[in-house]
Amino acid sequence: MNLIHDLKSERQNVSPGLPSAYRLVPMAFYLVMVASLVLSVYLYLSKKDYEKTRASMEARLAQARAEEVSLISKQDAIVSEAKVAEGIAKWLEGSHPLQPIAAVIGRSMDKASTVAELALDRNPEIPAHTFLQLKIDGSGSEQIESTLNAIYALNYQTYSAQQVKGRNSTDFQATLIYSKK
Q: At what angle do helices 99-108 and 141-152 cross, to 10 degrees?
């Protein structure tokens, strides 16, 4: 019985046989199949490794974002506290004690005059401005002038001054502004 296959031997009156190099085709086929299996396993393992690495990187990224949010919230808290402290510092820098003003007003009164009312109100937004309301019984404008001269000696300026004379009293209102000389 004769076997017939693609790799024929040379025969007379028939086409010549295939070159001997073609005998390597089946071996190349099996070699390519084995290489593709090895490559498939390598790619599968590489994909699994990539997925593990990606999951760990995503976890680290989420942790870094949480840390960033935490640090930003701490920084915002510090900045807001610094702004409050800066506001307090500016307020303290602009404010001056009111006791010397009250003492100077009391000392500037002569024997014929008395302080009926005295109000010193500080503007919370501009602490260097103090609203003065003064009601003097007895002398009139002369006493107001001597009192203002005593206040000017403390480096205060009057702004928007108003004076109303009554029968026995004089009402005076002004905003006192501290000026550094």
A: 140
Q: Are strands 169-178 and 129-137 parallel, antiparallel or unpaired?
A: antiparallel
For the chain, list the strands marked E by DSSP: 114-122, 129-137, 156-165, 169-178
User: In whole angstroms, what separates CA 154 from the centre of its chain?
Assistant: 41
- Structural element, H or E, at residue 151: helix 141-152
- pTM (2 d.p.): 0.51
Give the tokens for residue 94: 């602009």
CA atoms of 60 and 82, how far apart (whole Å): 32
Per the CB < 8 A criterion, the answer to whether 145 and 157 are in contact is: no
The predicted-structure confidence for 131-174, as pLDDT tens digits, reads as follows: 989 888 877 778 888 888 988 888 888 888 888 888 888 888 99
Q: Which two tokens stand for residue 54?
A: 């990606």
Gap between the Cα atoms of 161 and 44, Å rounded = 90
Transcribe 9-68 into DSSP letters: PP-TTSPPPPPGGGGHHHHHHHHHHHHHHHHHHHHHHHHHHHHHHHHHHHHHHHHHHHHH
11: left (phi over 0), alpha (psi -120 to 50) or beta: beta
Q: Residue 87: which H helix or E strand, with range?
A: helix 24-94
